[in-house]
Amino acid sequence: MPNSPITTSVFDLFKVGPGPSSSHTIGPMKAAFDFRQRLAQLPSETQKRADAVHVYLYGSLSATGKGHGTDRAVVAGLLGWQPESTDPVAMLKLLRDPAALYPVPVGDKTLDVGPQHIHFERKRYDSPYANTMVLKLTSGDEVLAEEEYYSIGGGFIIHKGEPEASANAQTIPYPYSSMTELKALLTDHAISLDELLMANEMALTGRSRGEVNQRLDQLLDFMHKAVRRGLKHKGVLPGTIKLSRKAPILFQQAKGMSQSSDSFLIFLNAYCLAASEENAAGGIVVTAPTSGASGVIPGLTFLAKHHFHHNKATMRAGMLAAAVIGFLVKHNASISGAEMGCMGEIGTASAMGAAFLTRCAQPTADIGPIEAAAEIGIEHHLGMTCDPIGGYVQIPCIERNAMGAVKAYNAFLLATSGAAYFQKISLDAVIKVMKATGRDMSTKYKETSEAGLALSATEC
């Protein structure tokens, strides 16, 4: 059995929730909700003494949290909201009035929380992760309860003192932690990639095959609804940049030039921009693997459904192939922009998208071209910075989703050209390079808006 096998579910990697950032919105919402639950379990004497709840944000949660809506996400979690069931319109209204206060239950009473209780800390905090949250229940200057959380990308959180949530590895019929180990399992057990991933998913979640397939269909539906909304919605995105939506314009342009060879790319760009613009507006999207990269796979799957006319079974198989690439990156590097820069987000999404396209194009799940496509996708995003202007998931993030999808498509073409097995660099090797590159990158280029394009804010 491999060391520390991957026990992430497809449905943990692909999560439904409000934009614009999984690490800044979904993760903090989940952490605040968890803190709310813990407050309810405190001794009644402690609850009675409490007079305030304070939230301290560090790392890029502080540096770009305002632009990402982290303060609204924290309030939503403290109010008991959950990502998938959140009304994005209601969430955008939170904290719009700086004098507004929101009741948080603590035992038999409620404590009001407002902007003054959410602290964007600029000082360095001794933490193993870039995005750290500390939530405190206080009585005057006395801290009655304190919990520390880390938002590690894609909406995943870790609670200090507790291991990262995972299933018992003994329940996984086919444990692996690398592509090398995965390929060995396929050979040793004479099993297809589709069957191996389905067996693991059923064991992890306790769902039947039909239930797994039904949820995959639901996720695709959430993705495609985001694309459709984005193709219709016009106007200006929220925030000080005043960025105009482009997806509806591109979509109409593509429809008007159906005889041109360029229309295919324009359609793909329109689909990716549509989902990404919905994310930037705080709409409901699917982390793929993050909200900041939630335009790549929705755009590609929308294309696959409406242009290639793949059936549901093929689309599901493609989603599983995409997921395994996301698992490997998350397990062996990171999908967090605060850890890896944008290569962790768009780079991973592009590799996942390339794997999706490659699997869909094959009558059987030949792992060689899938691995080659994913490796090419990551290789050509190495070193990509995360430098959002003003802390908003808009420039360069929205167009970067479209570019990541185009690279995914080209990676698919290269990998299915018949030369997949000539690829010199393995997926495992490029993920190691990705991790090392992220470690070596200056923190200025990792979601802090302190360098790169972020310094162009004055021109917007």
Q: What is the compact description of this entry?
A:
Residues 9-161 form the Serine dehydratase beta chain domain. It is built from 19 helices and 9 strands.
Walk me through this protein's architecture.
The chain is an alpha+beta fold and about 450 residues long. The chain folds into 2 domains: about 20-160, 2-Layer Sandwich (60s Ribosomal Protein L30, Chain: A), CATH 3.30.1330.90; about 170-460, no CATH class. About 50% of the residues lie in helices and about 10% in strands. The protein has 19 helices and 9 strands. The chain has helices at about 10-15, 20-40, 45-50, 60-65, 65-70, 70-80, 90-95, 180-190, 195-205, 210-230, 245-255, 265-280, 295-305, 310-330, 335-340, 345-360, 365-380, 395-415, 425-440, and strands at about 15-20, 50-60, 100-105, 110-115, 120, 130-140, 140-150, 155-160, 285. A hairpin with a 5-residue loop joins strand 7 and strand 8 (about 155-160). It starts with 9 loop residues before the first helix and ends in a 20-residue tail after the last helix.
